[in-house]
Specification:
45% of the residues lie in helices and 15% in strands. The chain is an alpha/beta fold. The chain folds into three domains: 269 residues, Rossmann fold; 125 residues, Four Helix Bundle (Hemerythrin (Met), subunit A), CATH 1.20.120; 47 residues. It binds adenosine monophosphate and zinc ion.
Length: 471
């Protein structure tokens, strides 16, 4: 399997450190708000990577943190903690906010068929791990105490910038808001490992430490959590591209200085989902969620399909038109799978199945070429073989693509049987509502739904389009 490694700027053959396990770490969400569909693009593609590794026969252990402390609103280590900001916005405690948005994140992941990592660890659970690492960094001269905070001294490194082949825009956007100079720093890239003095004295969560009562910086949490669950080496570390600098750069600096050896072999970065006006971000306040897509009648898996149609190392522009096209293509694909006959008595043609799987393997194993992998699904549908073999190939592909093609096809068949006896007047209203939605006339679409309800039917938006069901 080949994967592009951001640390070497090359597509490389993937070779894990240990024969029996691939150690994979993913930067988790900052749980101060709902995840937007941009964040979820990153998690979808990381999910595809994990599933592709499993498809290739690897055993994977994947760890994800939940950022519930330390992620500041500005990169300059002077901004307010994002969690505190969320708590203030909603008049709740930081822990209440963290619990609510963590649950919301995993509910979204489930709808998008994103597998839950083997280990999910909130940052607030591992304070002792960060203190142990920071203590050694202080003892070995990689860290210093100034103005009440502990900083990492980047001048002690032979090489600081690792990921320097990205577009300036990708490094800047979303991480540089409200930058203020911190006069305690010896070098401009130094970063906080432990805060005891912040402009924001009402920081809710604080712990005792050798440097005073305070809280950890954001970067140290990923090093600490990774080492706690995966030990002193890592095969693959993933994240969105805005994490490459400074977050991942700082993770490498502190981890390798602490360990005294190389830490992680492969770095996989997912490029951004952009709106027509730039990167989708939580801090801008204008973002789309999975629930919003559902309210508008989209199947979350149509969004997954939309993401898989493009390569993870290219920015992806979101527009309703693009999503409509993907939703229509997904719907057609499901209908084609539904048309195949699954004869329980038949046997798949093993030789043909092997050939079909190899085609898929060549696509997904080439730095996750998901659009070619989707083409492999169409090729299987067209292949000169029986339905049983086609279905077996599609089932195998779907363990990586995660499009629930078989389940959606079965649902479609069941709905088709049920909808045969729908009142023709209701069927006409369904068509009018579809036209209203296409014209983005949401008020009219809602009015028609109420009219249909008054006639004793409930409208269900399915991947195959709206259906009416007797109440
Ligand atoms: P956060 O919750 O802000 O810590 O971000 C969670 C993940 O989403 C990180 O891996 C980010 O790099 C990633 N991310 C943030 N914005 C976008 C975007 N517009 N497109 C793709 N990934 C993103
Ligand atoms: Zn991280």
């Amino acid at each position: 399997m080949k994967i592009y490694n951001s640390a070497t700027h090359m597509k490389e053959d993937f070779k894990p450190n240990h024969p029996d396990i691939v150690k994979m770490y993913t930067c988790g969400p900052t749980v101060y708000h709902f995840a937007h569909i941009g964040n979820l693009r990153s998690y979808i593609m990381e999910d595809v990577l994990e599933k592709a590794l499993r498809f290739e026969g690897y055993n994977v252990k994947r760890v994800m943190n939940i950022t519930d402390v330390g992620h500041l609103a500005s990169d300059a280590d002077t901004g307010e903690d994002k969690m505190l900001k969320g708590a203030r916005r909603e008049h709740k405690s930081v822990m209440e906010i963290a619990r609510f948005y963590t649950d919301a994140f995993f509910a979204d992941c489930e709808k998008l068929n994103i597998k839950r990592p083997d280990v999910v660890e909130p940052a607030t659970n591992c304070i002792e791990d960060y203190i142990r690492i920071i203590t050694k960094l202080m003892d070995t001269g990689y860290a210093y105490f100034a103005g009440g905070n502990v900083y990492f001294d980047t001048s002690k490194l032979k090489k600081y910038y690792i990921f320097n082949d990205f577009e300036a825009d990708d490094l800047d956007v979303g991480v540089r808001e409200g930058v203020e100079e911190d006069t305690n720093k010896r070098n401009k890239n130094d970063f906080v490992l432990w805060f005891t003095k912040s402009k924001f004295e009402d920081q809710a969560l604080k712990w005792d430490s050798p440097w005073g009562v305070g809280y950890p910086g954001w970067h140290i949490e990923c090093s600490g959590i990774s080492m706690k669950h995966l030990g002193e080496d890592l095969d693959i570390h993933c994240g969105g591209i805005d994490n490459a600098f400074p977050h991942h750069t700082n993770e490498i600096a502190q981890s390798e200085s602490y360990l005294g050896h190389k830490w992680c072999n492969y770095w996989m970065h997912v490029h951004h989902l952009n709106t027509t006006s730039g990167k989708m971000s939580k801090s801008s306040g204008e973002f789309l969620t999975v629930s919003l897509l559902e309210e508008k009648g989209y199947d979350p898996l149509a969004y997954r399909f939309f993401c898989l149609q493009s390569h993870y190392r290219r920015n992806l522009v979101f527009s309703w038109e693009n999503l409509d096209n993907a939703a229509a293509a997904y719907k057609k694909l499901v209908a084609r799978v539904a048309a195949l006959k699954d004869d329980p008595a038949a046997q798949a043609d093993e030789a043909m199945l092997q050939t079909l799987k190899e085609k898929f393997d060549a696509a997904i194993g080439n730095d996750l070429n998901t659009s070619l992998a989707i083409t492999a699904v169409y090729d299987a549908l067209k292949a000169d073989t029986d339905d049983k073999t086609k279905l077996a190939a599609i089932d195998a592909y779907d363990t990586v693509l995660g499009l629930s093609l078989r389940a959606a096809a079965e649902k479609l068949r069941a709905e088709e049987e049920k909808s045969d006896d729908t009142d023709p007047a209701v069927a006409a209203l369904l068509e009018q509502r579809a036209a209203a939605k296409k014209a983005k006339n949401w008020a009219e679409a809602d009015r028609i739904r109420d009219e249909v309800a008054a006639m004793g039917y409930r409208i269900i938006d399915t991947p195959q389009g709206p259906k009416a069901e007797k109440i």
